[in-house]
C-alpha cells in the first residue's frame, strides 16, 4: 500500500474539510499567477511604466503579508475560520470582475491590495487548519495543498493567453501606452482613407480573461459554504446531533484522546504572528528556538522571492532583448513554470511520505542553483529558457511545504512556526518583486537572472545553517522533550500502595514465623 492505513483513515474522516482547503488554495493560485503574463497589457491599460506597474505587485504582496500576519485571529473557532475563507474567496472573484475597469494604476493597486488581504487570510488559515488536523502526518497533505496552488496558477496564464495583446511590448512612455489604451477601448472601425477600405480587426480584450477567471473561482466560496452547512454553522441551519463514527475512526479517536491525556498539555491552538511574539514563555526557551524560526524564515524569504520574481517577470524578460521572443511564445513560459510546479508537488506527495523533508529541501535548493546558473550561461538560448523554466519549477515546487513540515516537526507542531514562515515567505515575494522590477527598468533584463542566482545561493547557505541549528536544538532540549510555546505538562502522579505493601509483608512474616 502506498500510504499507511491510519493516514487513509485520517483523510476519510476529514475528507470534506481537506478538499475544501485544497479548493481554497486553488483559488489562491488562480489569483497569484495572472499578473505575470498580463503585466504588459495592464501597463498599457493604465498608461504606466514598468517601474510603476511593479507597485501593483507591491500592494498585493504587502496586503498579503498583513493578511498572513493577522490571519490567525480568525482561526479561533471553526465558524470564524470558514466564514473568513468564504468571504476571502468571494472577494477574489469580485476583484477579478472589476480589474478590467481599472484604467488607472492607483485603482488597480487598490484592487490588488484588497485581493492580497484576502489571499493572506487564505494562506494562514488553510495551512494552519491542515497542520492542526494532521500534525505529524501533515507533510503529505501540505504537499497536496500546495499542488492545488500550482494547479490554479497553471490555469491562470492558460486562460489569459488567448487574450494577451501582441502590441505595447517594450514601450515605457506614457504617450505610447495611451495610444494602446485607446486601441483597447474603441470597437473595430473602418478607415476610408484609401480606395479599398480595410477592416481593422480588434484582438479579443484581455478583460474577458479576468471575467472567465472570476466565474471559474465562484465554485470555491460555494464549497466553503457547503462545508459550513454540513457543520451546522449557518444561522439558518438547526443544530443536530453529529454523525456517528465508524469503527476505524472511533478507534483512532479513542487512541488519540488517550494519548493526549497521557502526554499532551492543553494548548491554546495555533495563533497568529503577533500572539506568538508576545507569548510570556519566550524567556524560558533556548536561543535555538528563535534561530529555527529566523533561519527557516530567511530560507523561505529567498526561495519564495525567486518564485515571485520568476512568475512576475519571466514574460517581460523573454520579450526583451537579448531573448526577444514573440509575445505568444513568451506567454507559455508562465504556463510551463506553473505546470512544472504542479507536477513537482504531485510527485512530492509520495516522496514526502518516503523521505525526510530535510533531504528533499537540500536536493531542491541545490537544483535551483544549478538551473539558475545554466540560465545565466545560456541567456540567449530560447530553447533552454523553456527547459530551464520547467526544471526550476520542479525544484522550487516543494520547498515551501517541506520547510513548513520540517520546522513544525522540530517544534512539535506548536503552530507559531507556520505563522512566522508564511509571513516571511510573503515578505520575500513582496520585496523581491519590487526590487527586481526596479532593477530591470534601470539595468536591463539580465539583472532578473542575476538576482535569482544570488537568492538561490543564500537560500541554500541558510538552509545548511538551519540543519545545524536543529542539531544543536535537539541536544539542548532532548529529542523527546517538546520545544514549544507552552509549558511542560505536570508529571503524572500514581498512588503508591505503601500501606498495602506493608500489610502484605507483615502478614507474610507472621505466616513464616508460624
From TrEMBL:
**Record's Pfam families?**
MFS_1
Localization in the cell: Membrane
Query: Known InterPro entries for this protein?
Result: MFS, MFS_trans_sf
* Keyword annotations: Membrane, Transmembrane, Transmembrane helix
Q: Where are the transmembrane segments?
A: 21-40, 52-74, 81-99, 105-128, 140-160, 208-229, 287-310, 330-347, 359-379, 385-406, 418-440, 446-468
Keyword Nucleotide-binding annotated: no
State the Gene3D superfamilies in the record. MFS general substrate transporter like domains (1.20.1250.20)
Q: Which GO terms describe its cellular component?
A: membrane
The answer on whether this UniProt entry bears the keyword tRNA-binding reads: no
Topology within the bilayer: Multi-pass membrane protein
Q: Which GO terms describe its molecular function?
A: transmembrane transporter activity
In the record, the note on similarity to other proteins reads:
Belongs to the major facilitator superfamily.
The protein depicted here goes by the name Major facilitator superfamily domain-containing protein 4A
Amino acid at each position: 500500500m502506498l500510504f499507511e492505513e491510519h493516514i487513509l483513515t485520517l483523510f476519510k474522516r476529514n475528507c470534506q474539510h481537506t478538499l475544501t482547503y485544497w479548493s481554497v488554495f486553488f483559488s489562491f493560485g488562480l489569483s497569484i499567477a495572472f499578473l505575470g503574463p498580463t503585466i504588459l497589457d495592464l501597463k498599457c491599460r493604465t498608461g504606466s511604466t514598468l517601474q510603476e506597474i511593479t507597485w501593483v505587485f507591491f500592494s498585493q504582496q504587502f496586503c498579503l503579508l498583513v493578511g498572513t500576519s493577522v490571519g490567525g485571529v480568525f482561526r479561533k473557532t471553526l465558524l470564524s475560520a470558514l466564514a473568513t475563507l468564504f468571504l476571502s474567496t468571494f472577494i477574489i472573484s469580485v476583484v477579478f470582475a472589476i480589474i478590467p475597469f481599472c484604467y488607472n494604476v492607483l485603482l488597480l493597486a487598490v484592487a490588488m491590495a484588497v485581493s492580497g488581504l484576502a489571499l493572506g487570510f487564505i494562506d494562514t488559515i488553510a495551512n494552519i487548519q491542515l497542520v492542526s488536523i494532521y500534525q505529524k502526518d501533515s507533510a503529505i497533505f501540505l504537499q497536496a495543498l500546495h499542488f492545488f496552488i500550482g494547479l490554479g496558477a497553471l490555469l491562470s496564464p492558460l486562460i489569459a493567453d488567448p487574450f494577451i495583446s501582441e502590441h505595447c511590448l517594450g514601450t515605457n512612455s506614457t504617450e505610447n501606452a495611451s495610444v494602446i489604451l485607446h486601441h483597447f477601448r474603441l470597437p473595430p472601425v473602418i478607415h476610408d482613407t484609401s480606395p479599398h477600405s480595410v477592416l481593422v480587426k480588434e484582438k479579443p480584450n484581455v478583460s474577458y480573461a479576468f471575467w472567465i477567471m472570476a466565474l471559474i473561482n465562484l465554485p470555491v466560496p460555494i464549497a466553503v459554504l457547503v462545508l459550513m452547512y454540513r457543520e451546522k454553522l449557518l444561522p439558518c441551519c438547526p443544530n443536530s446531533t453529529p454523525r456517528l463514527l465508524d469503527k476505524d475512526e472511533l478507534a483512532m479517536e479513542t487512541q488519540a484522546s488517550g494519548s493526549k491525556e497521557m502526554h499532551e498539555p492543553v494548548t491554546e491552538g495555533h495563533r497568529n504572528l503577533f500572539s506568538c511574539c508576545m507569548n510570556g514563555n519566550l524567556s524560558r526557551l533556548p536561543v535555538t528556538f528563535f534561530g529555527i524560526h529566523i533561519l527557516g524564515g530567511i530560507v523561505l524569504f529567498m526561495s519564495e522571492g525567486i518564485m515571485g520574481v520568476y512568475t512576475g517577470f519571466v514574460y517581460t524578460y523573454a520579450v526583451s532583448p537579448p531573448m526577444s521572443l514573440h509575445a505568444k511564445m513568451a506567454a507559455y513560459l508562465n504556463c510551463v513554470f506553473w505546470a512544472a510546479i504542479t507536477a513537482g508537488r504531485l510527485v512530492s506527495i509520495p516522496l514526502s511520505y518516503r523521505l525526510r523533508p530535510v533531504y528533499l529541501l537540500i536536493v531542491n535548493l541545490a537544483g535551483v542553483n544549478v538551473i539558475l546558473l545554466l540560465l545565466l550561461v545560456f541567456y540567449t538560448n530560447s530553447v533552454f529558457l523553456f527547459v530551464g523554466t520547467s526544471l526550476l519549477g520542479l525544484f522550487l515546487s516543494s520547498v515551501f511545504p517541506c520547510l513548513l513540515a520540517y520546522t513544525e516537526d522540530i517544534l512539535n507542531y506548536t503552530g507559531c512556526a507556520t505563522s512566522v514562515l508564511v509571513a516571511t515567505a510573503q515578505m520575500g515575494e513582496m520585496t523581491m518583486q519590487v526590487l527586481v522590477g526596479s532593477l530591470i527598468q534601470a539595468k536591463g533584463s539580465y539583472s532578473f537572472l542575476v538576482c535569482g542566482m544570488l537568492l538561490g545561493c543564500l537560500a541554500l547557505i541558510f538552509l545548511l545553517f538551519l540543519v545545524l541549528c536543529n542539531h544543536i536544538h535537539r541536544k539542548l532540549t532532548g529529542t523527546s522533550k517538546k520545544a514549544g510555546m507552552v509549558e511542560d505538562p505536570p508529571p503524572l502522579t500514581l498512588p503508591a500502595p505503601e500501606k498495602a505493601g506493608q500489610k502484605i509483608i507483615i502478614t507474610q512474616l507472621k505466616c513464616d514465623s508460624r
